């Protein structure tokens, strides 16, 4: 479904250059939950954000369902993005819109008619078990509920792929579990492919089929996850699995 091939990315700030990604490659199969793990600054978020071109890579290719995204122009890329949902650590909900209106937003942008939007918003809120909060405002929701609204919004337009950037990092341990269960449920019910950037090994153990360990902008090691078990072969991988 996704092939990331030899991606590099440098950030240029006033007096500094940061080589955030150096020749990164990995493949994600349809229906898979794929983790990107590593310490802060290792390049996980940048790698995730190059997949939908929120960050444009300096070199390399991203293939999505066989299409080379590097070759797409802006309007073609807008259509591709509609097939990729994204969720963030801090939810990114619009405070002045109700839960239902937040979920409706991507459908309005995609030009859906009002009746279809109303029906789809109800379906999505049912999928994340939040139908009873459709008229609430984000300020009146818990962190877990906010993230579930963000998930409902991200899946509204029937994306094939969900990009999740540290989706549990701002949540307490119990609520982290609630969000992981919600994502696993959607992965199974909708065959939704999920790529998740996280620094929490618990998240990887509970949800991922495979994981790439990032270190200093490179992929250090890629592992299968079987029943929550990971067996890194490198010393760094072993230390990370022990410590995180
Ligand atoms: N917009 C930016 N401008 C300049 N440097 C950036 C920018 N975004 C990220 N960086 C730098 O690029 C490197 C990789 O950052 P990235 O956010 O991808 O890492 P990460 O593994 O996701 O870390 P974290 O878990 O802290 O989010 C870091 O050194 C970071 O400081």
UniProtKB/TrEMBL annotation:
Stretches assigned to the ABC transporter domain: 2-241
InterPro entries assigned: AAA+_ATPase, ABC_transporter-like_ATP-bd, ABC_transporter-like_CS, MetN_ABC_transporter-like, P-loop_NTPase
PROSITE patterns: ABC_TRANSPORTER_1 (PS00211), ABC_TRANSPORTER_2 (PS50893)
Top-rank taxon, per record: Bacteria
Keywords: Amino-acid transport, ATP-binding, Cell membrane, Membrane, Nucleotide-binding, Translocase, Transport
Keyword S-adenosyl-L-methionine tagged: no
Gene Ontology molecular function: ATP binding
Protein name according to UniProt: ATP-binding cassette domain-containing protein
